[in-house]
Amino acid sequence: MTSTILIHPGLFNSGEGHxxxxxxxxxxxxxxxxxxxxxxxxREEWVSALDNAIRNAPGAVxxxxxxxxxxxxxxxxxxxxxxxxxxxVKGALLVAPPDVERNDFxxxxxxxxPMPRRPLPFKAIVVASNDDPWCALAKxxxxxxxxxxxxxxxxxxxxxxxxxxxxxxxxxxxxxxSLAD
Length: 181
Hints:
It contains five helices and six strands; from the N terminus they run βαβαβαββαβα. By secondary structure, the chain is of the alpha/beta class.
């Protein structure tokens, strides 16, 4: 099955060398969800942009979210999971979800806490590292369980971004493509 792959970065977007940016350039049908403001995310605006991208995507959709993109995906499922075009989403790879409930989470990021905990209406895989500075491993595992997602611990890879040294991350691509089956 050919799917549109919607890549949804987190805070500040994903720059050069980030696996999401590399995937966007190499995977057929991959498109970045564009946010108006990558510097001061507001949940309703980010969820609306994701919803528009899903609505306008041709055919089936796979989501490849990183960091705050994971929280956006969970909120989209919470608020839009029952709309007709929601059935286009076949699966989501949710990488390094941030703990939006932390007291020290950036105050300019608004509306993402608390993290939704209902089961997602599509297949999902959560990937986390055991030394992510933005989310404790136990919290990421708890969200995966609440969402009905498979969970993979990636070891000590920080926030699973460009600094993690994953390059174009073949294992992540395999997990993403497994969601289309």
